[in-house]
Amino acid sequence: MKELHSPMNRKTYYISMLLMIVLMAAGLAVSTAELQGITTGYVIHLLCAVTVPACLLIYPRYETFAFRLSIILLGFVYFYTLALIYPQTWTTYIMICLLPALAILFYDFKLFYISLSLNTIMLVVVTTYIHKQDNIYKYIHIDLTGNLINILASQLLLFLIFYLTFDRVRKQELYLEQVQQSERLKMVGHLTAAVAHEIRNPVTVVRGFLQLYQQNPAFDAADRSKFALMIDELNTVEQVTSQFLSIAKPNREILVDEKVDVQEVLEGVASLLGSYAMLSNKHIDIEIGEGCTILMNAVEFKQVIINLIKNALEASDTGAMVHVTARVVKQKVEIKIVDQGCGMTEEEVKALGTPFYSLKTNGTGLGLMICFSIVEKVNGTIKYMSEKGVGTTVLLTFPTADRS
Fold first, then answer.
1. Which of 111, 185, 262, 329 is deepest in the core (most CB within 10 A)?
2. Based on the number of CB atoms within 10 Å of its own CB, is 137 exposed (0-12), middle (13-18) or buried (19 or more)?
3. If you count DSSP H runs as helices and E runs as strands, how many of each does the chain have, helices first?
4. Positive or negative, the Cα torsion across 343, 346, 350, 356?
């Protein structure tokens, strides 16, 4: 119930709880006035009338599943006690039919299923028991079959209301998340376009002069080779700049027909990052199946693999092993990168790929965003599975180049 963190919503919640306490106290006072002797049912009623409101009042401080379940079970005890010890008040029977609605307050799907299943079973058992008590529960005794049908129908109706509402809210949350992500990408796109434009102009000028110097016979061969090296590095800058521009204006209509051998790229990346891993006594293990070929830009694929394996190495402890496997599964190439590092929480995993979000102290958050963009461009997927303190598995899937 994150809504309770809002001051206005929390105020409304506490006012509602106080009104409910007043009603429960009024019901207890009426039953006390009519009391002819202390009974077990009355004691249970008294305890629930004190315990249930107390739990609801302190709930905003302890929003755990166990505490929610305890409140639901106390609610069951309270309303079923009222239904059994006050047979003349037939409206309590309606209340116990609506008990699963308490789970809607917490908006917990698992809790709702538990309460719905428990309430259905208890209603059938209690109704059957009540039917045997002649002249006490007349409203049940007269038409047992009709009441049982209405009971089951009420539970089905609650299920439909909760399921459809939950599904609608989940779709709205997904839509809102997509809109927010689109706005972030738009902002990053404008930023990268501006930066890339400002970088390209001086790079073009510098490269032009270097090409002139390279062709100038006044310089010896050693100097000209250095000019060639500088030009190659400027070409790398140009390529990186183009990748930033692809974020600002991605061209998804270009068909990628470059056949990439996954084994060749993975082995090359493992060799490239091997020295980096050895600095902290870490290792990379590669296992590749047959037929692992995909259609995409080889440089972009290499960039994705370097980024993901480097992240896995940085998340791993000293002496750890990063396992990389590739195989063909149902016309798709699956690449797994598994580390035994610090792992991530569910919230951290959901935020991955968001612009400027990084778990590194010196990270920008743009690396993974570019990786997600590159993979999505070729109809691939990136899926993270992680557990705090255990490790992380990254699953990459690409359509195989040999698919028919």
1. 262
2. buried
3. 13, 7
4. negative
